Amino acid sequence: MHVIDSHTGGEPTRVILDGAPDLGTGALSERARMLAEDHEGFYRSVMLEPRGQPAMVGALLVEPVDKTCVAGVIFFDVDAVLGMCGHGTIGLTVTLGHLGRIGIGSHRIETPAGIVTVDLHDGYTVTVTNIESRRIHREISIEVPEYGTVTGDVAYGGNWFFIVDPSPIPVEPGNIRRLTDMTIAIRNASISQGIGGEQGEPIDHVIFQDASPDQGVHSRNFVLCPDNNYDRSPCGTGSSARLACLAADGVLAPGEEIVQQSVIGSTYRLSYQPGLNGGVIPSITGQAFIMAEATLIFDKADPFKAGIAL
Ligand code: PYC
Q1: Beta partners for 74?
Q2: For the residues 28-55, what does the mean pLDDT come to?
Q3: Of 57, 77, 118, which is best to mutate to test ligand 1, by the most ligand atoms within 8 angstroms of its C-beta?
Q4: pLDDT above 90 (res 39)
Q5: How far, in Å, CA of 61 to CA of 73, rounded?
Q6: Which of 2, 63, 251, 258 is the most exposed place for a label (fewest CB within 10 A)?
Q7: Is 243:270 a contact under the CB 8 Å cutoff?
């Protein structure tokens, strides 16, 4: 299995070029469902230690249904198949450029959540124009065991987010353990209290928004991902959901650009245009760097061939 590893603002992406199970040629949402339900062992073995690393997102390259797209992709982490992934799309685009499969310019990529446009500006810098993103609940309260009532917005940016602003804990690297524990408790409480998407989709990510001490930065975030790791990047789909909230609150105008920072200090430039269905079309600009080109080996004699799953 050949893979290329990159990171986007510190968040790793592993693009799988070959050796994956055959998911057929159906709609990408159907192929994502097959991956989630029938091939859990495959995607976990690629993400889990010792082969993978915490916070890594896999990007399985597949044939797109829409032939105007340069690629189809299904993203996953160790615990879930994702609808879309912003940092992963930036990593994938830089990887496709590195492979010579695309050049500088604009390209379309098909994901289970819909078609996104990517602009490769140079060897590292990409703007993703995401699917339409929307807020569906403003200031909804959740009773969180051991933490009490927590109020936030529910919004969609390709995944489902519960966004708390301002953060109840300062978003600083020294607080990552506390931030992780509280956001896991919120996500679990949202699921047990049935708070999620319009069709009952569970909240899969939780965001805490805080001020940043850095000049020119709009805000700093902490983003919990489905695998209970935090996003080292400012989270592309989370930033999209956040843009939908800022637009709905009337505090950010179409085309106005802000800088969103992650808890480790990496940044995205963000803006939006109004969508056709009342939401926003987000633009996310960030950089990715290739780290490795590798052949993954699954030796039958290896007792941890399937990864370390405790
Ligand atoms: O950038 O959208 C994102 C993302 C989702 C999970 C990790 N990163």
Answers
A1: 60
A2: 96
A3: 57
A4: yes
A5: 5
A6: 251
A7: yes
Length of the chain: 310
- Identity at 149, one-letter amino acid code: T
Domains of the chain: 2-131+290-295 (3.10.310.10), 134-274 (3.10.310.10)
In this prediction, what percent of the chain has a pLDDT beyond 90?
A: 98
Closest CA to 283 of 274, 291, 292: 274
- Sign (positive/negative) of CA torsion 193, 196, 202, 203? negative
pLDDT band at 309 (very low <50, low <70, confident <90, very high): confident
Mean pLDDT for the chain overall = 97
Has residue 260 got a pLDDT over 90?
Answer: yes
Q: Taking the CB of residue 300, how many other CB atoms lie within 10 A of it?
A: 5
Radius of gyration of the chain (CA): 18
For ligand 1, atom 8: residue with the closest CA: 235
85 is catalytic: yes
Cα torsion for 66, 67, 68, 69, to the nearest 10°? 70
